Amino acid sequence: MELPFAESWKIKMVEPIRKSTRQERQQWLEEADYNVFQLRADQVYIDLLTDSGTGAMSDRQWAAMMTGDESYAGARSFFRLKDTISRLTGFEYVIPTHQGRAAENVLFSHLVKEGDIVPGNSHFDTTKGHIESRRATALDCTVDEARDTQLEVPFKGNVDVAKLEKALEQYHDRIPFIIVTITNNTAGGQPVSLENLRQVRRVADKWGKRVIFDSARFAENAYFIKTREEGQQDRTIKDIVREIFSLADAMTMSAKKDGIVNMGGFIATRHEDWYEGAKRFCIPFEGYLTYGGMNGRDMDALAVGLDENTEFDNLQTRIHQVEYLAKRLDEFGIPYQRPAGGHAIFVDASKVLTHVPKEEFPAQTLTVELYLEAGIRGCEIGYILADRDPVTRENRFGGLDLLRLAIPRRVYTDNHMDVIAVALKNVYDRRESITRGVKIIWEAELMRHFTVKLRPAGEE
Length: 460
Ligand SMILES: *Cc1c(COP(=O)(O)O)cnc(C)c1O
Description:
- The protein is an alpha/beta fold.
- About 40% of the residues lie in helices and about 10% in strands.
- The chain has helices spanning about 20-30, 60-65, 75-90, 100-110, 125-130, 160-170, 195-205, 220-230, 235-245, 270-285, 295-310, 310-330, 350, 360-375, 415-430, and strands at about 45, 95, 115-120, 135-140, 180, 210-215, 250-255, 265-270, 345-350, 375, 380, 400-405, 440, 455.
- The longest helix has 21 residues, at about 310-330.
- The chain starts with about 20 loop residues before the first helix and ends with a strand.
């Protein structure tokens, strides 16, 4: 008999978690203005808000922290991090930042100006925010397949090369660079194929443009390339990663994802002029160039994390768990963005809560219902996250309306996945009775989903 699959690690330290009653959760939710970001973590049983900074570090990462060099300038930790990044990506220049959005802020301060157009594949919300706050436009060139959640295609995160070509023909003098997000978070943690990255490179070269990879989940993307793309099966993850980055001019990185650290990020590039330009903004925004918002010990933990998470076994354990949850949801017929993404399951709220009008935010309503059901905290990746159009100030209802169940790395067991699946089934079974959603009573102008205040629609 073939042995079943099991995790490629064992557990050395545990953190207790606590269940609550529905009555408690109802009260906490009211106090949180129906925004799960406003809950206290103690009020959550299984926390799937994000996979960002929520992973469990390994014993080797904790050990590396003890070797951290906290010198203000020229710390050994910086050089260990820089050498690791250069070895994995081929990029010579590295600027640490406190997280991914800070990397965007520093690099885009140098590169993006008013009136610019930045084409890419479903820009992440902070990426879009950093483009739009500079009065530039993020132009989405994702493949149309990504919009149909039930379509089973292997690389749903891809850039539509025809759309990209058209953007360049139309706006080439206003395009400072092309940005490709790997994996494509907003489209459901969907990967981008190596072939697609090569095509983007060819288009960019034809127009003399540079390419940035928003690389938060580059290792998970490499895993999908290895396991799904023709001819890639026999390569190591590290080998694929090297080729991925050979196709880019620079990367911005949220190390809280595939770096498996709790805080951190960086910019890396092969171009001295971009490095020089970004340097000018790193110092006032983030800090001196060899720490840029990170502790020495955290840079050491990141260096080890990057190495560990570009090994097949670690990635296989992770993606297997996400696929396990997807399989459970399949048993119950719950619609999600197919196939399962790398870091999360994105439940298609518009196909679950069909009686809730889009003006009452179905995905946010489903998020609230799942929390009430079992104390599970997911995250709306939908109409609230999409913010308003910067020009018309209308809600943007053009994209998908999803409930994201993000799985932290190396944190929960498959038993937790079973609880999540059954809780969602219970909500799914009573979906016909959910006819009203939520309404906004206060919102920020940009990135409103973190702080938005809501009430049940139809209530005074
Ligand atoms: C998380 C994320 C960011 C922003 O990174 P932070 O570390 O949260 O600031 C940017 N792009 C993508 C694709 C991300 O997933």
